[in-house]
Specification:
Length: about 425
């Protein structure tokens, strides 16, 4: 496999994310997943189609890829039969490789995935009564080293490509069996088309929402996350509403405005502390981008309104950030910046070697009550998928692999 840019963690507060080109495949074919219709059209022209053909084929192929989820050109039934081998010779339709799929007793599902160049990352699906949320990763590891987060302890970091990001959503739809079934109604059908006249019906969906809350800091991989989410939101593609997508950032202020303008999804901000000393410790990025500047950037976030409130995530750490005074200070700050806000209180999910404990349930309730009394919604998030290490901040693939290897050794020695 060709080399890819691996990035060691360059420092706690001033990471330099290294964007990486798409790794060429050994067979020279190009993976179309992650590419826009315009780019696909360009590639078709470069491969020899005339402009009109390239435009038509790109539109058809785009629809099959992102709307129908097909992974084989042979299944693109409205494309001329002679054309399909032409596509197969030059292009592929990729998916992240699945290393392992796990099911939690509460219905949460986690997938350990792998890039073509051998890096592990994870995605999590959390079903609820009224929605199903896919938690998507943006990087392998994270450069930011928040002290309570397992992902932040991973040594190797690389940005995921747009194809690897949107590929998670496509893989989830594969696994959940959620691509529209039946025949396809497509205005550009060929004469040779076998299935041009009928139309398909979209089934009731399990996957309704996406949160960029898996591994990594999405705003340190801005271009790829933007391109991937634009494919997710494209009406001719996966067609998920931006109102159903939330991007979570630990507070990369310089990218927040562009996030609102160029992606336009809901924003979640990992606040976690209201005092400088505490936030400096647990979210080291705070030494670079402080609390007040962060809240000002939230107040300036394009399209934030009462209808589209900003979510503040607040992990409950025993004796660290969970006092009544902290709760009152949180209310004061959110009021001061006049933010359309809600607060998600996240019970800390422990991991081996973490130097923190979760606040006691009655402490969390008292904290929540104070914030509610201040006029701000502050529900306590129920941890999900803890038994398979799928909960917030528990994603760390190398640890899982190690413990699996250890388990294997234990099994072997026991046998
Ligand atoms: N890097 C982004 C998005 C990924 S983290 C960010 O930090 O916002 C998603 C959420 O999980 C963040 O709010 C993060 O702070 C929280 N989290 C991380 N580790 C956690 C842990 N051990 N217990 C509970 N929440 C955690
Ligand atoms: Fe990175 Fe978010 Fe974890 Fe902090 S909480 S280390 S920003 S993934």
């Amino acid at each position: 496999m060709p080399d890819t840019t691996l990035m060691t963690i360059p420092g706690q507060v001033d990471p330099v994310p290294v964007a990486r080109d798409i790794t060429p495949r050994d067979d020279g074919r190009i993976d179309l997943i992650g590419l826009s219709a315009a780019r696909i059209r360009e590639l078709f022209e470069e491969a020899g189609l005339d402009a009109r053909q390239a435009k038509l084929r790109a539109k058809q192929v785009f629809h099959w890829l992102y709307h129908r989820g097909v992974t084989d050109f042979a299944a693109m039934s409205d494309i001329a039969k002679t054309m399909r081998p032409w596509l197969t010779e030059r292009f592929v339709i990729g998916r992240p490789n699945v290393v392992e799929a796990q099911h939690s007793s509460d219905g949460t599902r986690k997938w350990l995935l792998q890039t073509d160049d051998g890096h592990d990352f994870e995605m999590v699906f959390i079903p609820d009564a009224d929605r199903g949320t896919l938690c998507v990763s943006s990087q392998v590891g994270c450069t930011l080293n928040c002290t309570f987060c397992h992902t932040g302890t991973m040594r190797l970091v690389r940005n995921l490509t747009p194809g690897e990001i949107v590929g998670q959503v496509m893989l989830a739809r594969d696994a959940l069996g959620e691509w529209p079934k039946g025949k396809m109604d497509f205005a550009f059908a060929d004469d040779e088309s076998e299935e041009s006249a009928a139309h398909y019906t979209a089934d009731g969906r399990l996957l309704t929402n996406i949160v960029m809350m898996g591994m990594g800091e999405p705003l340190y991989n801005f271009d790829h996350v933007r391109d991937a989410l634009n494919l997710v939101m494209d009406g001719d593609g996966l067609a998920l509403s931006k109102r159903r997508i939330t991007l979570s950032t630990s507070g990369v202020i310089p990218m927040m405005k562009r996030c609102g303008e160029e992606i336009g999804v809901n924003l979640a901000v990992s606040l976690h502390a209201v005092r400088k000393e505490v936030r400096d410790e647990i979210v080291p990025l705070n030494r670079k981008y402080g609390i007040e500047d962060l809240l000002q950037a939230c107040a300036d976030y394009p399209k934030a309104s009462n209808a589209r409130r900003i979510t503040f995530e607040y992990v409950m750490l025993k004796d660290k950030n969970d006092s009544d005074d902290d709760a009152r200070e949180l209310v004061r700050l959110l009021r001061k910046f006049d933010l359309p806000a809600k607060v998600n209180l996240i019970p800390f999910n422990p991991w081996p070697g973490a130097g923190y404990e979760c606040s006691a349930p009655d402490r969390i309730r008292a904290f929540s009550d104070i914030v509610f009394a201040g006029g701000i919604s502050a529900p306590v998030r129920t941890p999900r998928g803890r038994d398979i290490d799928a909960a917030c901040g528990q994603l760390k693939t190398s640890a899982h692999k190690k413990s699996r290897a250890e388990r294997d050794r234990e099994t072997a020695s026991a046998g």
